[in-house]
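Archive transcription. Copying these from loose printouts into the bound notebook so they stop getting lost. Printout 1 of 2:
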Amino acid sequence: MAHKLEIFRSETFRTPLGFEKELGLWVDRTGEAVSSSNPGKLRILGLYAAVYIEKGEGVYILESSGKKSVRAGDVMIVYPRIPTMYYPKGEWKSIWIVWGGPESQTLDKMGYLGKPVFRDKNESVRKAFMSMLHIKGREDMDSILERKRIVIEMILELHRASMEEDVLSENKLVMERIIAKISENPSRDYSIEKLAAESNISLTHFRRLFIAHTGNSPKEFILSMKMSRAKQMLSEGKSIKETAEECGFEDVFYFMRSFKKMTGITAGKFSGR
């Protein structure tokens, strides 16, 4: 941030009923809106909130961890004591649920609200918001208990989505490391089984992740890297035999067949161009 932002404390919240206090978690408010404004100040909400961006993109600022870009499909978690600010780039539509209570703090301490921004791929906030519409404003015990149930289910779904995103991120790092290893030395005789074992991933899952990340099977990708290296060497004037050997092909005829299949031209014609 270029300058120190002013911080204000929110005073907009209702006093929970006695039964809500006994339950330990209550819904303060829900809402949806189209907005284009920038508050220009960090706010201490005093409660928890889940804000789902339905359309548009923007920025989420937490004093504790800085600025984060957000877009449609993301959910922003607001914490009671952390100054925050969020605003659209242009205009966005958002849906929010605000809640409080000691059970909320317990869930936070247990890690169920640990990640401030992530993809809400199941639209958990939107579903929870829609589920509460028919009991909005009702203060009977059944409705109060139903709202608590909806919020707890939403928190659980959001936690699972956050954890899944972390796994996907870890898988991406693993694949990038493997791809960098292959790209650095494509001439090696790589064992797909050993690459999977090094990554602590089952062979079947390793193949599935590799295809999802590169669009090719591990075998196809390795061969493609070998051919890229081969084209470079042939362009530099290396012989077909020498190129085949340095690219990890023990059989020069297999190399020539593979080269034509991958490039659509024979190695001899390619080197003579």
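Printout 2 of 2:
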Amino acid sequence: MDLLSHTHPGKYYFWLFFILLLAACSAKKDSGEKEPSETIVLIDDLKREVVLSRKPQKVMALAPSMTEMLFFVCDTSQIVAVTQNCNYPEAVKTKPIVNNYPMDFEGLLKVKPDLVFTIEGMTPQSDAERMKQMGIPVYYQKYATVDDVLDGLADIAKIMDREELSRSKIDSLRNLKNTVIAQTQFLPKPSVLAITWQDPIYAYGKNTILTNKLQLAGAINAIDTVFDNPYPALSREYILKINPDIILGGTFNEMDSSFFKLYPELKKIKAYQNKRIYKVTDDLNSRPSPRVIEAVIELKKYIHPEAK
């Protein structure tokens, strides 16, 4: 008697399907064909498409500020290298160094991160394209405000699958920002000129993140014009015209013996007359990093020492 005549038709078709499936898998294996890997497509802040073959596990940053962000979000073991200018947090000293200027492509290949993070203006896109050809994708961020920096942290956390682990830390920065706003929002708003170079005179322009940090700290940027260069060269006539209430760039004595010695006519401005000239911590104020709220608090200390 035929064995199949006593077998339920459903069972017959199940075993037939199973045998065919095994045969197909065996044929794929014999032909050397690989199962397709999961491709991840990200869009960075420059609207560039960044393609990853898998979730990134090994990363590095090409800007000191971005390195701080990675240490804030990632497990330290995930960060494979830092740049020659990275000095915070302390753990950067345990990592290999890959120069970002000039770009050390050979050193980058040695550590071979799955993804490189950088910021607009730090890494030429031609360098990013070369890294892409080497199999190392590059992800750009850019910031116009303090909220952009905090959103950037959340963005990194999402990419690195560390949202749950990072959420409370990022939320604490947002809460601290709101506390500062509550302390300064109804106070007078003095104008602040932040000098970055003395000869010729360069300063933080209106279209830099400092403008927003000053707003949070209870002040305004004394530069009232948006220049093409975010850090414009200023004439003495322009500085006399805007007549800032406060100058950032050094202590009063340091600026008196250097800047105002070069430009004695600028002693007429209110900042000099009232001795409201201050030296702020450079790394805090020049880096859009997780310490951005700490930078705002330092600015507030000089601008509104009465605000508690």
